[in-house]
Give the backbone structure.
Amino acid sequence: EVQLVESGGGLVQPGGSLRLSCAASGFTFSSYWMNWVRRAPGKGLEWVANIKEDGSEKYYVDSVKGRFTISRDNAKDSLYLQMNSLRAEDTAVYYCARGMFDSWGQGTLVTVSS
Amino acid sequence: QSALTQPRSVSGSPGQSVTISCTGTSSDVGGYNYVSWYQQHPGKAPKLMIYDVSKRPSGVPDRFSGSKSGNTASLTISGLQAEDEADYYCCSYTGSSWAFGGGTELTVL
C-alpha cells in the first residue's frame, strides 16, 4: 500500500524558515516525480513544486521561487521542502503527492503568524 | 500560472446527475490530455477520481466520468449519492508546471 506521511509543519513567524519532510513507503520512490501541493484556509489547492525522479529537474510556482527549495533523498525514500522567508500567505496545509497526483499524504499544517 | 476556473458550487438530489466544468486555456486544458479530477472531503487528503481527461483509477465507481472539449474539461457524477458531497478540483498540466482549479463544492440535497 502506498503511504506518504508529511511532517515538520508548525507555527513560524513571518520571515522565518521551516523544513517539511515526506516519508514514502509501499512503492519504488526513486521511480516517481514527486510534488508538494498546498491548500490555504478557505482556498483551493495550489501546486507548489515538483522534482524529477533523480532530482535533476525542479519546478516551482512563481510565488515561491527563490524562497522554497524542493529536494529528495532516494536512499531514505524521502521528499523535502525547505521554506525560507515565509509570509502570511504561505499559511496552508502542505501535501506531498506522487507522480501525477495519484497518491497523497494527509498533509502538515504550516502557520505563518507573529 | 493562473488557476483554472470552476463554479464555486453545484448541487443535486440523490440519483440525479451533476456536471462540474473546468475552464482553462490552450496553454493548459486545451493543450494537453493531462486533466485530472480530485475529490476532497473535509479534513481528508484529496483523492484521484479521473486522470488523463477520462480514465478512472481502480476502485472509483463508474458513476464518475470525465470529458474535454476545447479549453473546458468536465466531470460528471451520475446517480448522486450522499457520500459524493465534497469539494472537487480539476488539475491540468501547463507545459512546465501544474494548475489546479479553484474548487467546486458539491452539495447533495
In short: DSSP finds no helices and eleven strands in chain A. The first strand of chain A starts at residue 3 and ends at 7. Chain A has a mean pLDDT of 97.
